[in-house]
Design a protein that fits this description.
Largest sheet: none
Shape: elongated
Structural class: mainly alpha
Oligomer: single chain
Number of helices: 2
Number of strands: 0
């Protein structure tokens, strides 16, 4: 049997994914406004990489 935390996470997984998608879209819009002729594919890669980095920082902070 799954533990209660895993079951709860499964109930919220879609919401977490949607929140992250909205965060990416927020920064995509900022790049569009601030960088004329932006290479959207490159900007997307950079945004997602930075979110990964930020999650690592958050993970380290929570582990303390």
């Amino acid at each position: 049997m799954d533990d209660m935390e895993q079951i709860e996470l499964e109930h919220h997984r879609h919401h977490i994914q949607e929140d992250v998608r909205k965060l990416v879209e927020k920064y995509r819009a900022i790049f569009d406004w601030d960088v004329p002729g932006v290479n959207q594919a490159r900007a997307d890669q950079m945004i997602v990489a930075e979110i990964h980095r930020a999650l690592g920082v958050v993970d380290q902070t929570l582990a303390q």
